[in-house]
Amino acid sequence: QLPGNGGLRGATCGDEFYGMFRRYKMQRFSARSNEQDSRLDDLVGANMPVVVGVGVLTGAANRTMYKLKEDYFQANLQEEEWRPDYNDLQYGYMGNEHDLDIIKTNLALRHPGKL
C-alpha cells in the first residue's frame, strides 16, 4: 500500500503505475494527428519519470571501441579479442535533470571526493 503523497491513498504500486499509464496514454493519443509518432527525439523521463542506468566506456576503452566501430562500418572486419581495462568501465545515468541532480547528491554524500 502506498501513502497518500498526491497519489491514490491506499493504492498498490501496480494501481498507481497503471493509473499513470492510462492517463499518459489518453493524453498522448487523444490529440493524435496524421503524422507518425516518433519517440526518438523525446528526452528520457519527459513523459514518464524514469532513470536509465548505462555502461560507459572511458579512456583507452572508449578510443578502442570507436576504432572497432569505424573498422566495422568500413568492412575492415578482423576477428579480434578485446578486453577493456576494468578501470575504463564506468556507470552512468540518463533521465531528467532534477532526478539526475538527486542521484548526484546522494552519490556525493555516500562517496565523498569520488565524483
Which term fits the overall shape? flat
What is the helical fraction, as a range of percent?
A: 40-55%
Oligomer: single chain
Give the C-alpha Rg: 21 Å
- What proportion strand? 5-15%
Largest sheet properties: 2 strands, antiparallel
**Total E-strand runs:** 2
Low-pLDDT parts are: none
Distance between the termini: 36 Å
Explain this structure.
Helix content is 41%, strand content 12%. It has 115 residues and is of the alpha+beta class. A two-stranded antiparallel ribbon has the order 1-2. The chain is flat and about 55 Å long. The chain starts with 12 loop residues before the first helix and ends in a 5-residue tail after the last helix. The mean pLDDT is 79.
Structure in a nutshell:
With 115 residues, the chain is of the alpha+beta class. 41% of the residues lie in helices and 12% in strands.
Describe the protein's topology.
Layout: H1 13-30, E1 51-57, H2 59-73, E2 89-95, H3 97-110
Please name the defining characteristics of this protein.
115 residues, alpha+beta, two-stranded antiparallel sheet, 2 strands
